# Entry
Amino acid sequence: MAWEGIRADPDDVVVTVGSQMALDLVTRIYCDPGDVVLAEGPSYVGALGSFAAYQARVVHVAMDAHGLVPSLLRAALETVRPRPKFLYTVPTFHNPAGVTLSVERRAEVLAICRGYGVAVVEDNPYGLLGFSGHTYPALRSLDRDVVYLGSFSKTFAAGLRVGWALVPPAVRDRLVLAAESATLCPPSFTQMLVSRYLAAHDWRSQVKTYTEAYRERRDAMLRALETYLPPGCTWNVPDGGFYVWLTVPEGVDTKAMLPRAVTARVAYASGTGFYADGLGSRQLRLSYCYPSPERITEGVRRLAGVLAAELDVLRTFGNPARPAIGRGPQAPSPSTP
Amino acid sequence: MAWEGIRADPDDVVVTVGSQMALDLVTRIYCDPGDVVLAEGPSYVGALGSFAAYQARVVHVAMDAHGLVPSLLRAALETVRPRPKFLYTVPTFHNPAGVTLSVERRAEVLAICRGYGVAVVEDNPYGLLGFSGHTYPALRSLDRDVVYLGSFSKTFAAGLRVGWALVPPAVRDRLVLAAESATLCPPSFTQMLVSRYLAAHDWRSQVKTYTEAYRERRDAMLRALETYLPPGCTWNVPDGGFYVWLTVPEGVDTKAMLPRAVTARVAYASGTGFYADGLGSRQLRLSYCYPSPERITEGVRRLAGVLAAELDVLRTFGNPARPAIGRGPQAPSPSTP
# Structure
């Protein structure tokens, strides 16, 4: 697969039960209790779960519209002790933030980590799901020491749970051993399904079809957000992947609001789940991958109603929400690599 | 499934990627590095792998023809420190020893563990594969606090990797959390296959068909062992499951002999893999589950040739093998529960 620039030897691939299992095993190999992992803030909730399972401490590095901020990464590596074991990153179409690490920053992030002797774990389930008709060079395409996690869940079928890790030879043997003790092997049946699918079907066209559907749904979500949301909300414009990361007006607690949203028959992932350090109470993640455009529109309309009621309550009880003046999408992530 | 006497609430079942994953997660939940696990000697090699992955120390408790010896279990619980976290046991059609824990001993083993406050993990992939037309009461059927591991790999299809843990409510929530961080969830596709198979097919008849094939293969193996093996070899007569556990004449090292066996185009699992403490060099495991009776016979004939050559070399180089006088099957495990 040259779309993202990766050249790999089949011997360096370890198939896993979804990339979650690869992430879990990589954490098992690298981390003892008390060790530190760097991750974007916010970061993928399933990764935070694996890090917690091995009692690793997560230090977040903030992102802007161009992804992970290199100067903040360098500052973290200077100051955090014990020295982090690895940087966990979703550079392309980030979950949950929806942003993409710019091409310029990719080499910089790798150089910084190399300089501090810190491994890089690149989680890339969304890389082929870009809306601009191009892909970004994977970090692994720039540095063969990167531990790369791939998945068929977003490009073929989530229900098969087939993922893989592409790892340097020094890591591979330990990963194979850990995988054997974890599940003996992934189901051969699902691997055979994937293998036959890739060999016999025009999977690239299928990915294109999926991506077109996702773009249509993203557009529906963005239109609905602009139409319905009250002032004081900001969000990103994702260039691929599944997620819009929404910041609500000050005073609203997205975790506390969730039960009221569910009562109004709309759900989201509250932002606190994506931070290991308690941040995220003003953020929430919206996913547009599955519902139809009509249902997305209706969902955002309901969410806007819940938010408006929340703001009413805040005003009534003397805790003014002080919405920011502006409203609307933030600067989009760069649309050309 | 009342065949083995278990009554279970669906809420207490956690589906896993094979029972290996359940075993791995149970170990993760119960054990910190340096903790002790009790296991039969010999014990399932995949279990020893999981225990090692979590840096748990294994203390073996010996078996006789009726399975785990209760007095030795009590002695271990009296003397081993730190106190073991759990007893890992394959009570029925043991892998690799092929023996079955007698019904009388089942209650005794449970009472001993309860008395010392030590959990019991029952691994039961072979329980329905008995050759005498009956099943044994699962330990879980006698004590609802037993952590029970089940599998469809031996009764339906190994390539699906669908297993499960049936656990007490106090363990369930921790197991679900650990399972989510390990793989998010097992493949829904393979679970749906199993579900449809159980609902739509006469799976009990299928198990009976499998079992008849296994019995035929066991018989072929036993006949070949009696026909071809040199004096000084002893083995069990398994009443179900897949394995014959063979003890070779003194002086023969089964691990050292394995490359010569492979050269003669026959393979086995050397006994040392089934012990965490270096024992097993005079033992090896033979599996009769997959090859045809004809190939089993030919395999044993080749193995006998390799053994004879090994004994020749030992005699020639003045390291006499001193074979025991007798040869043949040991007392079989009890044929009625």
